[in-house]
Specification:
Length: 333
Amino acid sequence: MMMISMCFASQIDNLSKESSEKINLVWQPVIDEDNDLSKIDKIQGVNVVSPSWFVIDSDQGHIQNKTNINYLRDIKTKGYKIWPLIHNNFDAEMTHKWLNDEKAKDYIIRQLIFYAHRYDIEGYNFDLENIYDEDKDKLTQFMQEVTEALHQDNIVVSMDITVSSEMQNWSKCYDRKALGECVDYLILMAYDEHGRLSETSGSVASLNWVENGIVDLVEQVPSEKIILGIPLYMRLWEEDYQGNVSAKKLTMEEANKLMKEKDKYPIWLKNEGQIYFAYRENGKIYRVWKEDVNSLRLKVDLVKKYKLAGVASWRKGFETKDIWPMINKRLQK
């Protein structure tokens, strides 16, 4: 594929921006009976669904296809738009090889066009993570090429990026300004402030950290091209007296149950915009910075404050039922 010297997204007039309606996307990587968006009643306000259907799984750019035809049919019947997620298996070495192979990149693009036509896909969500910093420009070039190709069929291109940090391969690999010039939307994954392997316990997405991430990004990318990614989960941190720390994921329901059982007097942390509770058990201390309807309301309100394009929630099945009405209401303000 020929080298592209500029992004072409700006040449597409109002692509996917048919109205002033905010984007309200939810990811669905796992489909179970209670959370199957194709079977349960339509969630008021949610207008885009992103199932994890495509994986780049080889150096040559082969895409593994996990599309569920029945799910696709029923999702469309309910009125959702569908932007399937495509990821790179988070394999830095494999990604390095296909990013530096013109034939492999061309193969990836041709497959994406084929699947978009075959399944009547409105958009794609690119979740390309764990990429060598040295491939930063190659990643930008690939996104320029794939965006130009998909725009020929008015297919929306969104891309997930981390909050800016000095973390190699996970943050420094993104040229946020250049990516924002070509793709339709950058989804700021404003979570994992303290990730699963963090050496210290802390919030998944404290309010100040999220807002600082937005402020940094809007200095580089037009705000109307930014979607705020929010977490529907948190972590239970376990600390021993030797300073060892480990964590496991909690859904909102699990956190509510745990707080009720273990700590009757949680506290509200204003700067973090979250409830915090802790307890001791078997010689260890356990801590939770809790995500709930109140913490997420503060985050969703940042969409209006910074005039962002909308929100994306990770992921269906982690939430409590009060989350969706709140998001819908706040996005309409």
